[in-house]
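Budget justification note: compute hours in this period were largely spent on complex prediction jobs such as the one shown. Inputs:
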Amino acid sequence: MAEIIDNSPALEIHDLIVSYQKKPVLYGVDIAIPEGSMVGVVGPNGAGKSTLIKTVMGLVPHSHGWVKIFGGDLKNSIKRIGYVPQRESVDWDFPVSVMDVVLMGCYGGLGLHRRPGKKEKDKASEALEKVGLEAYSKRQISNLSGGQQQRVFLARALAQESDLYLMDEPFAGVDAATEVAIVELLCQIRDQGKTLIVVHHDLATAREYFDMILLLNMRVVGFGKTENVFNAELLQKTYGGRLTALSEIADKLAREKI
Amino acid sequence: MNKSFRSVFLIFALYFLSIDQLYAARIGELVESNSWDQIKRFFTFSDRGLQLSLIGALLFGSVCGLTGSFIVVRRMALFGDAISHAVLPGVAIGFMWGMEKDPLAILVGATIAGLLGSVLVQAIVRTSRIKQDAALGIVLASFFAVGLCLIRMIQNHEGASKMSGLKTYLFGDVAVIDSSDIMTMSVIVVLTFVLFYFLYRPLLIVSFDRQFAYSLGIPVRLLDAVFQMFLVIAIVISLQAVGVVLVSAMLIIPAATAYLLADRMNKMIFLAIIIGVISAILGVFFSFLGSNLPTGPFMVISSSLLFAMAYLFSPKNGRITNWYRYLQLKSKVRKENTLKLIYHYLEKNAEAKEGVNIEVSELLRTSKGDTKGKLSSLRILEKSGSIELENKKLSLTNLGLEQASSIVRNHRLWELYLTNEANYAADHVHDDAEKVEHLLSEEKVKELELFLDHPTVDPHGKPIPGRGQV
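Corresponding output:
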C-alpha cells in the first residue's frame, strides 16, 4: 500500500463531551476522518448529529475533549471549513437575492469591508451554475421552493472553496431529482480531494451515497467504511433506543459540574 | 404583555406631567398668527429655531432609518423598544453630572444605561429559564421606573426651572435642540454612517445567517456589541426630539415600511432613511403648524401613515393593490368566459367564424345563471371591439374570434396536457382547465403546443382551434 504522507486527518475528534442546558447530547466521541472521504452521519432523532457538526464549527461549546481540523485548532482552520446549515435556520423572507446569498460565501477571501468585485461574482455565478440555479440569481430568496433554497445554500458553500464541508441535512425537503443532482455534485467535490461530512436522515440511501458512515446515538456506535459498519447489528444498536444509564449519569455529571 | 407595561408608563408619565404645567417649548418665536402664515414661515426657513429643528430631524431621521433596517430584519424590534426605555436613568444621571443640559454627559450616561440594560437582558436569558420577551419586559420596566424616580428627585432638588430640558426626554420636543446638540448629533451621525458603510457586509451576513457567519470567521459577538452600541447611540440622539416613550417607533416604523417596499437590503436601507427623514420633517411641520404641539407623537403618526400607505398600496403586495389585481382578473375571466360561450355556440350551431349573427336570447339560453352579468360583459366586449351588437343580435369581429379561439385553445391544450402527461382521466380535466385557461401566458401556450407536437384534437374529440385560421 502506498504510504500516507502528511497525515493529519481532515477532522479529528477526541473524547468529546457536549451538553446542552445540562442535558448531555454527545458523550465520548472519538473519531478521525481522513481527507478525501465522504462521510454520512446517521442516527435517530436527538442522537446529536447536528450538535456534532455545530460543535466542530465552534457554534456549540463542549465540556470535554478536543477537535482538530487538518491538525490545527478551529481558529486557524475555520476558513478551510464550508458550512451548510439546516434550511430552517434562516429567515427566507430576508431582503436578499439568490446572488447576494451566494456572494456571502466569497466573504472569507475579502476581509472586513471590501465589496465583492468581478472575480467574486464570477465565482458565485459558477457555483450557481453547478447547482442549476443560474437563471434565479436575481430572484429574492422568498420566491424559491424548498429544494431551490437548499441548492442556494450548497452554492454558497461551493463559493467558499473549502477543504472540509460540513452539511446539516442537505437533502431535507428536496425532491428526488434534486437529491440525485446534489449527490452527484457532492461526489465531484469529493473527487477533488475534499472532505465532506453530511448529516443524513434516510437509511435506505445512506449506504449508496457515502464511503464512510458514522453511526451516532449520543456516542459513536460505529464508524468506518460503509461496508464494514452498515450491518444489522450496529444499526440495531444505533436505533435501539438510548442507553439510559449513560444518559442519566451524564446528566448528573453535568448538573453537579464535577 | 409589553403593551400593558407601556400603558402603565404612560399613566406614570402623565402623572408626572400633571404636577406642574407642561413647559411648552415652541419651535421659533410664538407669534399670534393663523396656520396659513405658519405654513409660509415654515417654507421660508427663516426661523433660526426651525432651521435647527429641521437639521436635527434630518440627522436623527436618517440614522433611525439606517439602524432600524437591521433591527427589523433581525427581528429585534422588541429589543429596540426595551433599550429605548432603559436609557432613561442614564439621561437623568447624565443630567445630574453638571446639573444642566450637557449633551455629552447625557449621551454618555444614556449609552451606558442602554448597554447595561441589553447586557442584563442577555444575562437573564442565558442563566435562567426566563425567555427573552419576559426578560425584556422586566428590564424595560425597571429601568424606566428608576429613570422616572431620578427625574422626580432632580425636580424636587432643583425646582421646576431646571426641569425644562429634562422633561422633553419623555415625550420629545424638537424645539429644545440647540446648536450644541446639532454639533454632537452631526458627529455621531457621520460616525454611524461610516461604520455601517464599512461593516455592511459582515452585518448583513450575521443578520441573515448567524451560524454561517461564524463559519466564515466573522467576529460575530464583537459585531453584535458594536451594533448594539450604535443602536443605543441612535436612540439617544433621537431622544430629545421624539421622547423615550416613542423613540423605538422611529426605529421600527420607517424600516418596516421600507421592508414592505424593497426586496434587497441596500434598497431597504435607502428607503428607510428617506422615510425616516420624511417622517421626522413632517413631525416638525405639524408641530410648527400647531405652535406648541409635541413633536414626537406627530413624527410617529406621520411614519405610521406612510406605513399604512405602503401596506395598502405597495406595488408588490399591497392589500389594495392585490384587491385591484383580483378584480381585474375577475373581469378578465368573465369576459373570456362570455367569448368562450359564443365560440361554443357557433361551434355547435354553425361555423366558428366572424360575422355570423347570433340571437342574444338564444345564446343566453345555452347557459345557466347570471344573465345580467353576461349582458354586461357583452356590452363590455362590444366596447372593446370584440363583438358587434345590433337588433338583439351579436356577431364576433375578427379580433373577437381571435380572442375566443385563443381561450378555447388554452382550455383544450391544457386538457390534453393533463390527460397525456399527468395521467388524468379525460372526464376529470375540465374543471382544472376552466381555471388554468385564464392564466396561461402566450409563452406557456407555445411551449405546450411544441411539447404536445401541435395537436389538433382535445381528449374529448373536439378540435383545438389552430392559429391564423382566422
